[in-house]
Amino acid sequence: MEKYHSISGTIISIEAFPTSVNDSSGCTLMIGVQSPNRDLNYFILDQNTYFVNHITLKKGDSITAFYDSTLPVPLIFPPRYRAAVITAPLRHAFVKVDYFNENLVSSDGQLKLNIAPRTRVLLPNNQTYLGKLGNQDLVVIYGPSTKSIPAQTTPIEVIVLC
Fold first, then answer.
1. What is the pLDDT of residues 30-83, one digit of tens each?
2. Closest CA to 140 of 157, 128, 125
3. Angle at 129 (CA atoms; ends 127, 112), nearest 5 degrees
4. Where on the tree of life does the source sit, at the highest rank (predicted)?
């Protein structure tokens, strides 16, 4: 089962999101994202949200938001998800957020990673990751892949979501 799901669209609103009645810190944001088929979703962004390439969001930007589908979601409409990863469209590259097993195969069985010496393996704070990659939630930025199942790729960058 896929742990992370994604929704793509255009940012139509950005506002402070208080996490309690007395919270006026502005440290948590809520963005409204309208998909191409006009569906509206909200995403909560906090200190745990990873931004690919450390982008700064603004109204009108096209993004893809990844969220952990195993977390509870309030039963309200439009839905509000806690964003795990936000990315803007990348030129000549793709982004996959998923759990990768000890063989570096994604949980949906669609992508296998072949780590090369040139692959940057980082923590969310942009520091080099020194641990073992298997059995982790990863943000993978990659280019070409094989047409096999699972597709194989040598990633450009891997961010470990500790």
1. 999 999 999 999 999 999 999 999 999 999 999 999 999 999 888 889 999 999
2. 157
3. 125
4. Bacteria
CA–CA dist 79, 58 (Å, integer): 21
Q: How many CA atoms lie within 13 A of 121 on its CB side?
A: 19
The alpha carbons of the chain give a radius of gyration, in whole angstroms, of: 16
CB atoms within 10 A of CB 58: 8
User: Rounded CA gap, 26 and 97, in Å?
Assistant: 27
DSSP per residue, the chain: --SEEEEEEEEEEEEE--SSTT-----SEEEEEE-TT--EEEEEE-TT-EEGGG----TT-EEEEEEETTS---S-SS-EEEEEEEE---TT-EEEEEEE-TT-BBTTS-EEE---TT-EEE-TTSPBP-S--SSEEEEEEE----SSSSEEE--SEEEE--
Contact call for residues 98 and 137 (beta carbons, < 8 A): yes
**Is the backbone of residue 124 left (phi > 0), alpha (psi -120 to 50) or beta?**
alpha
pLDDT attached to residue 53 = 95
